[in-house]
Amino acid sequence: MLTITDILIILALGSIGGFISGLLGVGGGIIYIPILDYFLYKTGLHDDALVKGILANSLFTIIFSGSVASFHQYKSGNFYPKEIVNTAIPGMISALLLTWFIRNGSWYSKDVFRMVFACMLLIIASRLFLKKTNSNGTIDNPVSVLWPYRITGIFAGFITALSGLGGGVIMTPVFTDILKQSFKKASSISNGVIPLFAFCVGLYSLSDSDAIRVHQWQIGYIILPVVVPLILATFIATPAGVRMSHKTNPTALRYIFASFVSLIFFKTLYEILFN
Question: What is this structure's pTM?
Answer without folding.
Answer: 0.75
